[in-house]
Amino acid sequence: MSASTTTEAVPTTTDAPAPQAAAAPPRPAQAPNRPELFYRDPLSCLQSTFAAVLAAHGRDPLEVLGLGWEFAHVPGDRPSEEFYYPCGAGDDLGARLAPHHEVSSRWVVPEDGGDPLAELAAAVEAGGLPVAAVDNFHLPFRPAYHDVHAAHLVVVYGVDRARGLVLVSDAMPPAFTGPIRAEDFLAAWGSANPADEQDAFFSSSRIDRRYLDIRVGGEPAPLTPDFVRQALRTGLARLTDGAAPDGGPWTGLPGLRRYAVALADQARAGDGEAVRSAYPFGWPMQAGAALHGELLRTLGVRWDVPELREAGRAVEAVAHTWTGLRVTGAHGWPEPRAAADDLERHGRKLVRRHEAAAEAVALAADVI
């Protein structure tokens, strides 16, 4: 959505300033002392950290993250991070999570040889909220502390160099906001995150001191029926007109149908790694459906549109159905052939729920 602009008269004298390049999307005037904690059961640290940044910019996280809904699968991806999202080369993660708002993001790795906290400190001092990749094994407030390696995300909202502290915020249970020792943060931020037999899903992926730089543009504005109607129709077009080509990403309903068949076939062929990946891959798909369903149901109540409430429930049913597929993959990957029939059954049900939800959303878009 493009932000509206106002044209002002420009002096016609020779002293008029030259046109300036468009400025980068604004940041908050200053980083908040305590970022907002936004959490729902189906969400991962990916959505909760984006939500903290959105809230700092005066946005309602549910309205921004819940307006989009998609299915996308990158064949061959074997994710091992809680914050995985199926992005292709050149995709903007922020734009994928918030396709109807001015949100963008990029992964950054500080330069070698310098003070590793200097860049984070500068970003916070400039009003930013860098989102750092970390290994839970080294974070004292996580249940996995000194027990299990697992890739995770936290929001950094302060660096106290004098006292050797980093202020971090994590909405994922048990939830934490406050200071930790800089050495603990640096260990988590620079971890190799080695393979850990206690966590087959989020270990074995290097952290490499990455952080997400998230930018939010435009002005906060309430959702209107016209805006929501257009967003729903745009999302439905992407869902129904998706594709499942060889050598490219599988998207929309065609991609989902191909994924469901392929997963069961891979299980029958004994591909345990493909079955294992259903758990981390399905998480962002489940989270997206849960947020979209909650938003539609909320707006249906707010605007007294029964069809919108029903559409929300139908999309939330999609989110619940992802649980069966993901948990079957999580438990079945060591013996994939034994899990094949259950994966096929869950896959068929997931396709039916998506189809029913698409019909409900189409009806709601027509009557808003």
Characterization of this structure:
- The chain is of the alpha+beta class.
- 44% of the residues lie in helices and 12% in strands.
- The strands form two sheets. Strands 2-7-3-4-5-6 form a six-stranded antiparallel beta sheet, sandwiched between helices. Strands 1-8 form a two-stranded antiparallel ribbon.
- A hairpin with a 5-residue loop joins β5 and β6.
- α6 (225-240) runs antiparallel to α10, α7 (252-268) packs antiparallel against α8 and α7 runs antiparallel to α10 (336-367).
- The radius of gyration is 22 Å and the shape is globular.
- The two termini are 19 Å apart.
- Residues 1-31 have low confidence and may be disordered.
Secondary structure layout:
Blueprint: H1 45-56, H2 61-65, E1 72-73, H3 93-97, E2 103-108, H4 118-125, E3 131-135, E4 151-160, E5 165-170, E6 176-181, H5 182-189, E7 211-216, H6 225-240, E8 250-251, H7 252-268, H8 272-302, H9 306-332, H10 336-367
Antiparallel strand pairs: 1-8, 2-7, 3-4, 3-7, 4-5, 5-6
